[in-house]
Amino acid sequence: MLTSHTDMNAFSLNSKLIGAYASCGDFDSAELVFQRTTNLNIFAFNWMISALAFHGYPEKSIGYFSLLQQSRTIPNKYTFAVVLKVCVGLMDLNKGKEVHSMIYRMGFESELSVSNALIDMYGKCGNTEYARLVFNVMAERDIVSWTSMIYSYANMGKIEESFILFEKMRLEGVIPNDFTWNVMITGYARRGDCDTAFMFFYKMSKEGLTPDLVTWNAMISGYIQSRRSTEALSLLQDMLNAGVKPNEVTLTGLLSVCGLIDSACSGKEIHGLIYRLELIANVFVASALIDMYSRCGSVEDAWNVFSFVPFKNVASWNAMIGCYGRHGRVEHAIKLFEKMQYEGVLPNEVTLTSLLSACSHGGLVEKGLKIFWSMESSYGIRATKEHYACVIDLLCRVGRLEDAYDVIKDMPIEVTDSIIGAFFNGCKVYARRDLSEKVAKDILQMDLKKPEGLVALSNIYAAEGEWENVENVRNVMKDKGFNKMPGFSWL
User: Fold this and answer.
1) For residues 354 and 373, is the Cβ–Cβ distance under 8 A?
2) Which residues form a coiled coil (predicted)?
3) Which end of the chain is more exposed for a tag (fewer CB within 10 A), N or C?
4) pLDDT (tens digit, 9 = 90+) per residue, 39-74?
């Protein structure tokens, strides 16, 4: 075109050239043509805005929208639909409101695609009320409008509102599509109402629609969260029979179930499926496999998986270190930790929790203390309540209760059930009632923001039959305005 001296302004050739470069991801060339074009039209702006958004550059996309606002070019409905999607990508509700204001001023709110994009933006950015206001004033609604609004409520955990809209949509003659059904199934499954989710799942299949991978994963996840392990594993077989291939999300969730119910047999079957699906190289799947074998007591199988993984991330190392620690192979855990650092993998909070726990169970007090006190200087990790609980347990197991008391006294974070429980248990084992009473007095005087420490103290007094002290602790909790959620049983 350049060598033949083609008139680039004719037939909007500049805009089409910008579109060609932008859609192929060659933004340097697209921007060069954009800058050299004197009479930019809306199509040139739309191409840059949409292509940048599609290729993962939402900030640059918004930048071109701002440039459009400064020019004399008038945006169209496609511009607004894309920009609202960019606001979702940025999770920028304020920018979304600005765009909505512009849409209203220019009279584009009556456009179906723009209204749908507004509902989607408000819903995904967490403002269901604004989404409903847009939905209510729409003169025309299609399946996208209804589904976006249903999703908005489900995303906020308001599944009853989603159900009302779902039924109302059907009464108005709008037939739900597979995505609408998926939203309802996922919403109920996430809430743990697996029976209702399965009812929708069954109805969807009966109406000739095929549940997709997301729906199957939601159902399986719902059963896992509801601790209905057998049904979760059974769904995997149904999924395979339906011709839907599980992915890493499906399999990592089910492996956690096998670990919880100590079913190495089911875990090995899933392991075989992972090989057949060629997902063994996935670090998250491999880490879940290691953890599953660890929980089922098969350290050798866990090590075999760890050794086979070609690319290990910190989760893989953590799983194997945790496995060794759980089964008392403390020296192996420490050596693996050292090897991890040698290979340039930086430990995280979970790594150090696993290592401290291993030292505690193995009685390696000095090694554990050395790791704990050097956490921030050596690894840049500030100690959390989990780390403190491990080190208190470490000291109490060997009777170093004064040292444990000093750690509790100087803690920069609040005491928790596990910390206090470990300390009082140590005091009981080593007959140090003086220290337990000292800590109890300190806890009662602490300006706690959460009731965990006081609840633990009350429970310990109750276990000793010291009901007067229990009453004293309960009175302190009332004075501080703490309300403990009552426990309940499904039985």
Assistant:
1) no
2) none
3) C
4) 888 998 999 999 999 888 999 999 999 999 888 888
Q: What is the dihedral of CA 444, 445, 447, 453, to 10 degrees?
A: -30
Residues 271-288: what's their mean pLDDT?
91
Confidence bin at 302 (pLDDT 50/70/90) = very high
Which is higher by pLDDT, 128 or 414? 128
Tokens of 353: 């929790």
Burial (0-12, 13-18, 19+ Cβ within 10 Å), 139: exposed
For the chain, give the number of residues.
Answer: 491
Per-residue pLDDT at 202: 87
Please enumerate in sequence order all residues whose Cβ is within 8 A of that of 198, keeping only pairs 6 or more positions apart, or say none.
219
State which amino acid sits at residue 466.
E
pLDDT, position 488: 42
Q: What is the pLDDT of residues 215-251, one digit of tens each?
A: 888 889 888 888 888 888 999 999 999 899 999 999 9
- pTM value? 0.70
| pLDDT value of position 189 | 87
What is the residue type of 256?
Answer: S
Q: Look at residue 144 and tell me whether its pLDDT is greater than 90.
A: yes
Q: Residues 14, 8: contact at Cβ < 8 Å?
A: yes
pLDDT at residue 127, rounded to an integer: 93
Burial (0-12, 13-18, 19+ Cβ within 10 Å), 191: middle
Has residue 490 got a pLDDT over 50? no
Burial class (CB in 10 A: 0-12, 13-18, 19+), 135: buried
SS (H, E, C) the chain: CCCCCCCCCHHHHHHHHHHHHHHCCCHHHHHHHHHHCCCCCHHHHHHHHHHHHHCCCHHHHHHHHHHHHHCCCCCCHHHHHHHHHHHHHHCCHHHHHHHHHHHHHHCCCCCHHHHHHHHHHHHHCCCHHHHHHHHHCCCCCCHHHHHHHHHHHHHCCCHHHHHHHHHHHHHCCCCCCHHHHHHHHHHHHHHCCHHHHHHHHHHHHHCCCCCCHHHHHHHHHHHHHCCCHHHHHHHHHHHHHCCCCCCHHHHHHHHHHHHHCCCHHHHHHHHHHHHHCCCCCCHHHHHHHHHHHHHCCCHHHHHHHHHHCCCCCHHHHHHHHHHHHHCCCHHHHHHHHHHHHHCCCCCCHHHHHHHHHHHHHHCCHHHHHHHHHCHHHHHCCCCCHHHHHHHHHHHHHCCCHHHHHHHHHCCCCCCCHHHHHHHHHHHHHCCCHHHHHHHHHHHHHCCCCCCHHHHHHHHHHHHCCCHHHHHHHHHHHHHHCCCCCCCCCCC
